[in-house]
Design brief:
4-stranded antiparallel beta sheet; 12 strands
Length: about 170
């Protein structure tokens, strides 16, 4: 086997990712399979760590809500229900909680739902937006915020403590 040419690794990685995404689409049967009845717009699907459920966002009665779909049965459970938008779900590494963003308190902040109790805890409170939450394997939640005037990366514990700014955009004078 010869030496890989520059860029060949990236192409192979892209092909593998594309095949994986096509496979997931086939397994799920496409977005129309998420709900029976009228077609819904389903976004930001994320597989649970055990591969048994998919969290996603979809329009509810008054705004976008977070739902769970059981992969084997196809059953859909609505997790959030309110008059504002809830988006961007991300699973905890142990699959017991989901972090998401919501504008339920007039600006976009991070919230965590305990899946056993369905209790929701607000993690961030500031006048700027906190978006794109992703649960890290270390148990901390990574997210973007424009709280300093520039979009930066932050991390926080799932109980809302120990907020850390991880990046700092250089400013020009």
């Amino acid at each position: 086997m010869g030496k890989m040419k520059k860029g060949e690794s990236s192409v192979k990685r892209g092909i593998i990712i594309a095949i994986f995404l096509i496979g997931v689409g086939i397994i799920l049967g496409g977005c129309s399979l998420f709900q029976k009845g009228p077609a819904l717009t389903n976004w930001e699907p994320v597989m649970s760590p055990d591969g048994m459920k998919i969290a996603f966002e979809s329009p509810g009665d008054k705004g976008f809500e977070i739902y769970l779909r059981d992969v084997s049965s196809g059953q859909v459970e609505q997790l959030t229900k309110n008059e504002v938008d809830d988006w961007s779900p991300s699973w905890s590494p142990d699959g017991t909680a989901i972090v998401f963003i919501s504008n339920r308190d007039k600006n976009v902040d991070l919230y965590v739902m305990d899946l056993a109790t369905k209790n929701v805890t607000r993690l961030t409170t500031n006048e700027k937006d906190d978006v794109n939450p992703q649960w890290g394997v270390d148990g901390r939640i990574l997210f973007n915020s424009n709280r300093t005037g520039a979009w930066e990366i932050y991390s926080i514990n799932p109980d809302g403590t120990d907020l850390k700014q991880l990046t700092q955009t250089a400013t020009t004078k």
